[in-house]
Hints:
Blueprint: H1 10-38, E1 52-56, E2 65-70, H2 75-88, E3 96-101, E4 120-123, H3 128-132, E5 141-144, E6 150-154
Parallel strand pairs: 2-3, 3-4
Antiparallel strand pairs: 1-4, 2-5, 5-6
Amino acid sequence: MRLAGExxxxxxxxxxxxxxxxxxxxxxxxxxxxxxxxxxxxxxxxREADFVGLAAAGAxxxxxxxxxxxxxxxxxxMGHLRWLSGRIAGRSRPPALAALVVDQPMRPRRTDLGLPLxxxxxxDSAQVWRETWGRRxxxxxxxxxxxxxxxxxxxxxxxxxxxxxxx
Length: 167
């Protein structure tokens, strides 16, 4: 009596095993994607109590706050933050630009990001950006009114108020 696969060359068995593992990985990835996309996320809302102030804004803001989701190791989103700072610097009443440090498991040591941030620098220690708001794109800019209500969310590279309301 022959065992299953006994007559096949070893390379065929390894190829079949590799295909089975690849198919399993694809199924697992598909299930994770499906779970993430069927989950209901909360509409973003700015509440200072949800975040840890690293370099907080001074007085309460009576103007828009633009919050950029940044990963300190991502030159792309840090560049977007610098670009936004330059674009609003000459305005008579610029929005309060803020940085929200995301996907950082430990409290960041670096709080000075090298540019003026009237809206402060905040650390998302509770993963609100990812787990509650369901966001994934570094550099995304959120426009919040003075009460913390979301006005728009735009990807990196776009000046938020130039596109109107977008979510």
